[in-house]
Design goal:
Layout: H1 2-36, H2 38-66, H3 70-75, H4 80-104
């Protein structure tokens, strides 16, 4: 029974990842790329994906190491230190786009 639950969870996870990837790819191709070019659109998607992974990992570490719930993790963004950290994470996500823009000039 446990093996079957694991298989079902894996299938759901793979389908969710596929659907998110498909949706983001469609948005990039249909909405973003015509406006900014395919290279910048791909870089924006890369930065956004890196940001999402970074935030998920940060929340996961908070849960595993510090017994912090997702609500507590989100509530911490009300502090100045967390706002600064979030700003640096957003800058990290923007770097591929900035590099792409600088490479075009």
């Amino acid at each position: 029974m446990a093996a079957m639950r694991g298989i079902k969870a894996g299938v759901v996870y793979a389908l969710a990842a596929f659907l998110v990837g498909f949706a983001l790819g469609a948005l990039r191709v249909l909405l973003v790329a015509p406006r900014v070019g395919a290279t910048i659109a791909a870089r924006a998607l890369m930065g956004a994906a890196a940001f999402v992974v970074l935030m998920i990992m940060e929340a996961g570490i908070g849960a595993l190491l510090f017994d912090q719930s997702l609500v507590q993790y989100c509530a911490a963004f009300g502090t100045a230190a967390a706002v600064i950290a979030l700003a640096t994470q957003i800058a990290f996500a923007a770097l591929p786009v900035v590099q792409g823009i600088r490479a075009r000039t």
